Amino acid sequence: MGIILWLVVGVIAGFIAEKVMGTDHGLLMNLVVGIAGAFIGGFLAQALGIHFAGFLGTIIVATVGAIILLYALKLIKSR
After folding, report:
1. pTM of this prediction?
2. How far is the CA of 39 from the CAs of 16, 42, 53, 79, in angstroms?
3. What's the CA gap between 34 and 53, in Å, rounded?
4. Which stretch of DSSP H or E encloses residue 22?
5. Which domain holds residue 71?
């Protein structure tokens, strides 16, 4: 996957996760959350033996990872 596609996936995943979690960040933070979420989601998918393919599968895995990341950050901030 090219770097441009990674950025697009990161922004889309971060945006979807932002809406699901009810937070409001900016475009840059959505990118960071989406890319970090892609790593988290990819790691979890491989650990669970879940295979994903294509652009849509990548978006789904990255979004789930980004939601997990935002949830963890929300728990940390609440303490």
Report:
1. 0.88
2. 16, 5, 15, 25
3. 18
4. none
5. 3-78
Q: Is 6 within 8 Å of 35 (Cβ atoms)?
A: yes
Per the structure block, which two tokens stand in for 58? Answer: 């990548």
pLDDT in tens, 56-78: 999 999 999 999 999 999 999 88
Whether the CB-CB separation of 39 and 65 falls below 8 Å is answered with yes
CB 18 within 8 Å of CB 62: no
Q: What are the pLDDT digits (tens) for 10-54?
A: 899 999 999 999 988 888 888 899 999 999 998 999 999 988 888
Q: How many domains does the chain have?
A: 1
